[in-house]
Each structure stands twice: as C-alpha cells, then as structure tokens.
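ugh ok fine here u go
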Amino acid sequence: MKRERKFNQLVLATKNSGKVKEFQKYFSSLNIKIVKIDDIVGDIKEPEETGKTFKENAKIKAIYYSKFTDKPVISEDSGLVIPYLNNYPGVYSSRIGKNDSERINKILEKLNGIEEDKRVAYFVSVLALAENGKIIKTFSGKVKGYIIKEPKGNNGFGYDPVFYYKPIRKTFAQISSEEKNKYSHRGRAIKKLIKFITNFS
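structure:
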C-alpha cells in the first residue's frame, strides 16, 4: 500500500447492519465511510473459521474478503473468555447456542455454584485490516468483568446481560451504547485502528 493513500472507505467483513452502524459512530468525525462486504460484492460464501485464536480467525476473514474488493477490509473476531472454564467459550462464543439466551444459559449452568472470584471473565476483540489478500495490521481490545448469576439489563447483545463491569457497577446491558463504547473491548480495538489510520493517511 502506498503511504499517501487515504482510507476514505472501509469495508467491514460482516452482513450485520447493526455492527456497521456501531463502527460508523467511531469513524463519523473522520469522513470515512463504513460499508458491509455484501454491499460491495453481493452474497458470497463465508470463509471457514478454523483459527484457534481470535487473531487467527480475524486474519482468515480479512484476507478472504479483501480478495473480492480493492478497498481496505476490516474483519473482527471477538468473544467471551472465562479462565476458570479453561477460557471457554472463547472463539466458539457465538457457536455454543442458537441464540443469545441459549448461549448465556450454557455458561451460567457451567458456573452454577461457583464463587465470585472464579467468575472472572474477559471480553476480547481483535480487528484485522487487510488489502488485496494481505494483512496490513491487527488491533486488539480487552476488558475484564465478572459473570453474574442472572441476566440484568435490556440493552446490548450477546453476553452483555451477564457481564458485570465493576468500575460502573453495572452489566454492559444496563448502559447505553454510547457509554458502552467508552469501556468495551471492541471500542478499545477500534480506537487503536483509528489511530493507525489517522497516522497512516
């Protein structure tokens, strides 16, 4: 990539409009447009996520999708890590149940009767930036919390209702999306990406 190139448009390797809106909030002041991959290339087969880490899966997706467009591509892999459960569910966070409720119930069952100091959990996000089938750089974000015994809050998605963040004494589902962006794993990774792009352009 030429040093002087501007990142005026980024392709997000997702078909989720909600995630595009979330990313766009961070980039709005930079005059950078975020678009979904299927808006660029249509409906294409998703790559198989065979990585054993979030970083590996993010890179797999970024490399794959960047071969379909000449625009820079951002891919993310993220999830919940619970050390007491041998880092479960980890890269399988979105695959251990059919929906959020089922996935939450599965980890609550595994932690049933377990005391608080062993219910430590981390949200992890890894972003991979790629172009023309090659990785430019990866960015990671991590936030520490605790898994409470029952869901609280109606905002957010995924494991947010049971992820309790001590500094604010609330779960991620009990705060607004704007407030969550200040603390979240994804927000921290995106801020690193923005710093890189700003310095690169």
